[in-house]
Amino acid sequence: MDFKKTKYGRFMNNRVPSDKRYQPTEYEHAANCATHAVWIIPSILGSSFLYFLSDDHWETIMAWIYGFGLSGLFTTSTVFHTVSWKKSHLRTVEQRVHMCDRIAIYFFIAASYAPWLNLRELGPWAWHMRWMVWIMACVGTLYIFLFHERYKIIEFIFYTAMAAVPALVILSMHDRDGLFELAIGGAFYSLGTVFFKSDGLIPFAHAIWHLFVAMGAGTHYYAIWRYLYTPGSGQVKTSR
User: Fold this and answer.
1) Cα separation of 215 and 133, whole Å?
2) Cα gap 215→184, rounded to integer Å
3) pLDDT tens-digit readout, 214-229
4) 57 in a known ligand binding site
5) How far apart, in whole angstroms, are the C-alpha atoms of residue 35 and residue 200?
6) What are the boundaries of each domain within the chain?
7) pLDDT tens-digit series, residues 19-75
8) Is 81 annotated as a binding residue?
9) 23-229 domain in CATH 1.20.1070?
10) Does residue 206 have a known ligand-binding role?
11) d(C-alpha 232, C-alpha 34), whole Å
């Protein structure tokens, strides 16, 4: 398919219809890869740090779950954008990796909530949300397998709903420490969606979205480290 260059030349191609996938320029491809690849090692190291700070088996389990979700997000994103950049004849592989990239987002959201839902004393709905968040991730995964790239607005709504619904339970925390950081991280993700939907309108829009994701994830990591794993933070484990 022939994409005419915009006035930004090598920095952005023309916008495409909603039922088509935007084709980044070479520079945008490189930026898309770099802006998430750079966080793979820090996410693994940060997750390992939480593991070594764990005081009991539940903190250890949550560190593993959160760590896999965090590092998995940056890794699958980087692999997808690399394959997409160098795909040549790998169109089927690109499709499969793209699906993995989308699925990783669902499980990253669930993994990001897991420490708060399991290591903090919450309101009466907390017990249900501990498993509901994973049910939502599985439903999202099924949706990807059945309708990948067919109804993009519905997929976007699914991601937004999954990110917002568990937050209502988090607000029931008796200990409010960390709530400000959680809100700031959520604001980064929300602002980033403006760029997520701006390919062909703003040069490097997707790479900018990646940076907002990194800032949101970094803020939430800080909150988990500071208020759930730092010695003397005073977290209260939920009863089981």
Assistant:
1) 23
2) 9
3) 999 999 999 999 999 9
4) no
5) 18
6) 23-229
7) 677 788 889 999 999 999 999 999 999 999 999 999 999 999 999 999 999 999 999
8) yes
9) yes
10) yes
11) 37
